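Quick check before the chapter quiz. The format below is the same one you will see on the exam, so make sure you can read both the input and the output lines.
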Amino acid sequence: MRLSFLGTGAATSRSRHNCAIVVDEELLFDGGAPLLMNLARLNVPADNVHSVLLTHCHGDHIAGLGAFLLARVVGSGPPLTIFGPPGTEARIDGLCRALWGERWRTTRGVCDLRYAIVAAGMSLRAGKYRIDVAHIEHDGGQFYDVPSVGYIISDGETSLGYMGDAAPGPWVDAFLERCEVAVIECTGFDPGPTHLSERYVAELARRHPATRLLLTHFGGDAPVIAGATAGEDFATFEFGSAAPTG
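Here is the expected output.
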């Protein structure tokens, strides 16, 4: 399994693209980064992506989809499925209509674009991957309810988790217990009611030594945390039989 970061920045990052990763040139997790440019930089054809898995629909996780989806529609690419929590189809369609107006209405039908609304506890398939949908709370009910999920994918060798934004809580530990590798956020230094902080992630690394943690969604400089690896824009990692040895 090959994972590349297309962006590792939080919403207001000045030095990083917003969050997105691509797995095996097939699966796209979130879409905040300028996807077309960043996929091209990694030599990943946009038409290779057959599934987009959205954790939630905040702007820094979906804004890059506007140009990506137009390119797929105009280029008559292969079937594309967008997975996401309730409200995903309305939000993405609204984004594209705001960007492209009536052109989106008249060209969307050219591409085989499908939506799959997901909820925690579901298991489904996308290509060769099994996908389990996990319970994740974005803000723990502190401010507003944001439909949010995490994903754990398996190719038969590696279980990789991606959970987007999260509030501290038991759902984070439950998620990590199911993953060999997990991409989790690490937004700032001080703990708070929403987003995971450096201190909290350091505690997670101590509690889950068997899970390899890759960090993303940084508000500033990448942290240095024992037992975790900070992602960087365009960094690539390989797991399973494809991983280099020695």
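If your answer matched, good. The chain has one domain: 2-236.
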